[in-house]
Amino acid sequence: MPPKSKTNNGRVYITDLPHDDEDFTGVLVQDAVPVRQGQLQGVGVGSSTSGVVDVDGRKWMQASSWGPEDNSEYALDPKGGHLFNAAVSGEVDVPDNGQGNDNDGVNTTKRPRSKISKRPHVVWKELYRSKYLDELCRHSGRGDFRKIETCPDCVSRGSETPGPATYRCESCFLGDLVCQNCCVRRHQKQPFHKIEKWNGTHFADVSLKSLGLRIQLNHINMTCSVPIPCHFNMVIIHTNGIHEVAFDYCGCEKAESHYVQLLRRRIFPSSQYVIQTCATFEVLDLLHKLSLTTKSGMYDLYRGLEKLTDSTGLNTPKTKYRPLLRMSIQYRHSKMLMWAGRAHDESGPEGTKCGELCVPCMSCAYPGINLPDGWEKAPPEYQFLYTLFACMDANFRLKNQLVSNWDQDPSLGSGMAFMIDRKEYEKYVRGQATDDDISTCVGFQAIAQANNRFSQGLRYTGVGGVFCGRSDMILPQGVGNLHKGERYSNMDYIFASAMKEFLGLATILISYDIACQWFVNLYSRMENIWPSKLKIPTQVRLVPAIPKLHEPMHNQTDNHQQYSLNFIPGAGFSDLETPERVWAGHNAVGNSTKTQGPGSRLDNLDDHFNWWNWLKYIAMGATLMRRYRAAVAERNIQVEAHKGLTDNVGKAVSSEWEAMCDAWDKAPYPKAGVPNPYVAEGYQYTEADARKELAEEEDERVKGGGKVVHETAANKFVIMALDIERAQRKLKVLSKATPDTATSRQQSGLTEQRTQLRKRINTWELLVPLYIPGLLQYQADIAKKNGPAVVAEHPEDYKIWLPSHLPADLRKDMCYPGLPDMEEKMRTAQCYDALDSLRHCLRVKSRLYFQKQKNIRGQRDGTRSRAVIDRVHAKAVMAGTKYRWARAAKMNLSGKGDWEKVLQPLEDKDIRSYREAERVRPKQGRQGTKEDGMVDWEIVPDESNVNFGLEEERDKRSGTGETRRTISWIWLVPRKPDATDKDDDILRVEWAKSRARAARAKEEVLLLKEEMRRSIEFLGWKSRWWLKRVDSRRISDKSLKEGLRAVAMKQSRLQSDLQASFKALWETPLGEFSASDLINAEGGENELDIPDADDGVDEEAEAVTVNVGDEDQ
């Protein structure tokens, strides 16, 4: 396909890249030439400047390979920052009331939508409903053919005795009336149409078989000298219902087997000997697609066909559910074999290799298929481009009950696609039957339930799977049944089976939600337990990781950051939460597969998994383009942000931190003894520390001759007041939770606590005149000015006077010497204690909430889980209230200062877990939900309903926020704000995280470029693979040979079309930043001579097209 051309000021340049004639199998290097991204680089194969790949990183990236355009200015403000300056200094843009822009003279007012456009149902209801109803009723009669009495077909043929026109066909476009003989004659080649007979008052259903229609098979002219009648109860299932049909098999010298004769007419028989039930290819295709897209079981689909045949219950056909289920399984298995090219192989279906029926991931790295020559010699900084990103996890929804057995219900394709062949797998698992279930540091409830009553009566408690973390596709031989929960033996075998195809790679990054435990002894189990054929070569480096949404929920032990994808070099923006997305799309399948026999279930799951992969396969173009645009924008933003932070830190400090980060990145697992740049060391300044410090100061003061005014020292006076405040806050919560209708026991408990608190306040008030001697006069002055103070009814409302409640100018004179400083220390400690408690509550609550959402099902367990979350929520509310109270007091005591940079105001949006991104903007209500004329009332948020750390629902558009998130300041507070070293630790951690974000963003762009290149190369290889199978099978049947050739050519063309489509899509993914829009209109040195598509013909593909033969030749 020649490339399209465009002109720019008289010059012609190519905008569509060549695709059919390119060969990406070899990577040649040429001298650096300024080339626009998005164009083919180094096409001149055989140039004198070319050489073998053994280069540094700069030249490696200049190697000849296709890549999408890139632009370092994409998503950034133009140079000079005029957009920012204009936004800051510009005036408010006042709407023009829909009058358009007078400057350009263009009226931008939208035309008002018509009523039929806005309210089509209303218009139909008011104007057309009665007419539609009448027309439906008209079809129940003879309609336009009411006056026709004799058969028009008989009249047109000149028949002497035309028959009565009483029969019509519901399936034909023109429902005219004909006689019985003409109706049969019309449907000699349409035996599955539905016929009605007019009985004088209404139409009644009749079958073509009852009218005398017989269909001859195996002959084009529909006649045979030796016809053999089919079974008298032959039933055909079609898209419009279930039909009784009379076939005649061929019995002459051209005869084939009866089931073959039916297959030649696109009819799939349920048996091969005495055939009574069949289904057309059309209905099998329809049911197949409906099953894949709706996840409905075959029983529901059959019921629909049954009711389509007769919904009165008077003539319900004999059930054909079991034969239809059997035919559908056989049909889709045959389709999978055909799409995998097994019909083109001499060995046939029996020679199918493990996983050969799968739709593969085109963007994964396959040595010898879509990797460049010499990829092993790529510079270390680019080796991550050839890493496999694998994910694994278990699903306990796809369980299977003890129904039937493997002998009665064998699998048709066990081991041929995704599900592992059970024989060797179950033999290995039985040998490790004493293993305990995997325990995790977060205690997933689903695993804990694997051996209890929830697993009784089940053959399999679920499945485990391995997936490609970049494309969200399921890997071949990557799914296995779980016998009793998520055991090491099961997951090890499934992981090893899925890795067989990728053992030629140098690095495999494996993500597992419990990798911190599973990976620790993996090499030991591999060496001592695994079968030899499953062992992974030592030269393959395995890198453990935990999915992004799971990792923060783990206990953050030493060096736990090594499992975080945010800090693993080469991970890019991979979140590796693929299992959650795959399982979410297949959980509904469990409703039907849990009651199926083991073999049918296996084939059904393989079919659904293959469909999932196919949808990802054909959408790879749009997926990678969307990701690439976002990645380029994020890379530019993160790189610029990190550059600004580095400039502020200084070169000397950043160089030291850079070395620390490099050492961490290069250290192998488990990174023991290497300083962790992502953790700030230090200790927590708690209330206990403050109390100890004040006690020591009081002891030193007394030893130095200080005066003792009371046996209760001043520091204890302050501590006593703060304890009373804490008790008041708790009692307020309790009183609010105790309604007036509470029982006598509940009321008595509240009364007792109030009595105890009142006694503590009375004891404290005795000390007030000693330590705040000026308070009595101050209260008298206030009462004289504002009137008598209102006496609190309950002790929790009583005001506890401390220096922070006094005016700053009077505080020193009114208080005991040093008392304000003592309170200030205690308030500071309270702030840190409250933040520590708040963080702990949010961490626990986040973990509980995630566990509930993923694993808790049922009203009883849900209520119990919710009650636990509510208790933790109440503690978080108390901690947040304590911080706000303490900070307000500290503000009164200390005034404004640098401490505010650390102990910031605690807003509702700040109270979120470390794993939760910043709150998404409030979503606009769905359009069209308000009634006409409805006015939106202003909604005032209730402060009592503030969401303290409860995970908010984020849809796929909001994303997780992890990669681009800015975590709440409460997780960044240094543990000792007045220590310079500790401040540097916090800054160092933030700088290291900024560096990691910039590095991951740059890696993501490179990964996507490489995946685009690999996808294009894979599609070209697959197209040639099909071409080689055009005549690979030596057979004498010319019709079959032509069919095999047609299948291969069609599949080859499909791969080529996908390749061309993806290239056209990826040519200019950056929109207005595209290379074609940035061409210098003046010409000159920057213009490039872009080669024509026909300049580099793929000799291999050309040879294959001319001389196709066996692949091994």
UniProtKB/TrEMBL annotation:
Residues 95-107 have a biased composition (Low complexity). Residues 208-313 form the CxC2-like cysteine cluster KDZ transposase-associated domain. Residues 91-114 are annotated as: Disordered. This is CxC2-like cysteine cluster KDZ transposase-associated domain-containing protein. The lineage of its organism: Eukaryota, Fungi, Dikarya, Basidiomycota, Agaricomycotina.
